[in-house]
Amino acid sequence: MGQSVDPLRRTALLSPRGQEVGDGPNDFQVNTTFAEARFDEALTRGRWRLGLVGPDQGARVSRGDLLAMDLRTHELPIACVEGWSTSQTWTGVALRDLAEQVGGLDVDEVFLESLQEGGAFRTMSITGRQLRDPRTMVALQVNGVDLSLDHGFTARLISPNAPGVRNTKWLATITFGGQS
Ligand SMILES: Nc1nc2c(c(=O)[nH]1)N[C@H]1C(S)=C(S)[C@@H](COP(=O)(O)O)O[C@H]1N2
Ligand SMILES: [Mo]
Fold it and tell me: Which protein residue's CA is at the shortest distance from atom 7 of ligand 1?
């Protein structure tokens, strides 16, 4: 599948809505493709670490560290204000489990930072309530396979109570307690 993408069809799908058809399990709508995000793919690979900043301490966790944690799987929607919605099966680590590692479970705000260098959605925040929802996760996989680059590899936020825009892709750092 996807071996011969008609270039015209592909262009049409790169509409202002950012919708694009990917391959297999990652074949669902995209807002901001990896190509549009414009950063070095190497940043998502071997040396990638997720930075965790909490009131008590900080930590840097690798993809392997995350995969070794308690993994959760939930079917959750992404609803984009641009007029589409999709529901997929995500697997990852509960955000609250990561917060606990750095003493950040009781904060009022969580600040998410993407590897993306520019763009309005490079940084985002979610509420303490969203943090404490056990289904809010740092997702590594979707529908049983690794996230595609377009869907935020290495890791992205998925929260059941947040608009699509808050589900930050290409996570770099998570600060519990807001931007200090
Ligand atoms: N870094 C980053 N994360 C992002 C965005 C973005 O432009 N940059 N777009 C957001 C928006 S508006 C939506 S609706 C979802 C869409 O996720 P998807 O592209 O995996 O479907 O990602 C969100 N996360
Ligand atoms: Mo969106």
Answer: 32
Query: Does residue 78 line the site of ligand 1, with CB under 6 A?
Result: yes
Please state the domain extents for the chain. Answer: 6-176
Q: Whose CA is nearest to atom 6 of ligand 1?
A: 121
Residue 34 has pLDDT above 50, yes or no: yes
Which pLDDT band, with edges at 50, 70 and 90, does 22 fall under? Answer: low
Angle at the Cα of 26 from the Cα atoms of 176 and 97, rounded to 5 degrees? 25
Residue 138 is inside which H or E element, if any?
Answer: strand 137-142
Ligand 1 contact, 32 CB (< 6 A): yes
- Answer yes or no: CATH 3.40.50.2300 is held by domain 6-176: no
Those residues whose beta carbon sits under 5 angstroms from the ion ligand 2 are 31, 80, 164-165
**H-run or E-run covering 36:** helix 34-37
Looking at the predicted structure, is the pLDDT value of residue 23 above 60? Answer: yes
Q: How far is the CA of 97 from the centre of ligand 2 (A)?
A: 26
| Average predicted confidence (pLDDT) for the chain | 90
pTM: 0.90
Report the pLDDT averaged over residues 28-54.
Answer: 95
Q: Is the pLDDT of residue 91 over 60?
A: yes
19: which 2 tokens?
């919708």
